[in-house]
Amino acid sequence: MSSDMEIHKRTAARQAADMVKSGMVVGLGTGSTATYMIERLGERITEGLHIVGIPTSEDSARKAKKAGIPLTDFAAHRRLDIAIDGADEVQRGPLHLIKGLGGALLREKIVAQAAKKFVVIVDGSKPVDHLGERVPIPVEVISFGWECTAERLSACGAKGVKPRTDRDGNLFVSDNGNMILDCTFGPIEDPEELARQIDAIVGVVEHGMFLNMASEVLVATEQGVERWEP
């Protein structure tokens, strides 16, 4: 990715972080763009901002602690004022998302669903006309019987179902101790129906389609940052 695009991503992330007000409970996303947001919140805390955060991954928890962001959990706060995160694809119009290429989709969806406002930050390569155009749908599954789960995902129309591996070639394990199957569907005409089919498969914990969840999306382009609403 060009250095210019990284600059735009950072600008969008900082804009999102500047939406946060003192007293808020904030969902802290995962990924490269969310890292810029976490850094900005850390800066604002040194300037006097008072917030608490709920991270969407162990990685984001480490970065938040390093930035000086006090952390909390759902035992103390059932609802969040705002969650800020990235996405792997954004469908123009309804702003449906695919998330989870970083492996944190389950916690990301729990946090997004608990937030009164869910703000998404992406670069200009992420918008698409149909979900599945460029990236697979990550599906988090339990390891027991995952081969059977993969067959049922294929029966939903996936052209390929591949267990995710780490850099060493071992099966990827999520922060929740589960596997992730990357399912290539191609352009999806009816994401709501596909979501229902995947949700009905025994062994599936969660999938990476975030439908009707984004409150707004900040899109970092070469021309600047665009603000989209559903």
From TrEMBL:
- Record's keyword terms, sorted: Isomerase
Where substrate binds, per the record, is at T30, G31, S32, T33, D85, G86, A87, D88, K99, G100, L101, G102, K126
Q: What class of enzyme is it?
A: isomerase
Question: Domain of life of the organism in this record?
Answer: Bacteria
Q: Any idea which residues are catalytic in this one?
A: E108
User: Pfam families under this entry?
Assistant: Rib_5-P_isom_A
- A GO molecular-function descriptor: ribose-5-phosphate isomerase activity
ATP-binding listed as a keyword: no
The record's listing under InterPro entries reads:
NagB/RpiA_transferase-like, Ribose-5P_isomerase, Ribose5P_isomerase_typA_subgr, Ribose5P_isomerase_type_A
Which CDD domains does the UniProt record give?
Answer: RPI_A
What this protein catalyses is: aldehydo-D-ribose 5-phosphate = D-ribulose 5-phosphate
Query: Known EC number(s)?
Result: 5.3.1.6
What is the recorded function of this protein according to its Swiss-Prot or TrEMBL entry?
Catalyzes the reversible conversion of ribose-5-phosphate to ribulose 5-phosphate.
Q: Which family does it belong to?
A: Belongs to the ribose 5-phosphate isomerase family.
- Summarize the subunit comment: Homodimer.
NCBIfam families assigned: PRK00702.1, rpiA
What is the protein name stated in its UniProt record? Ribose-5-phosphate isomerase A
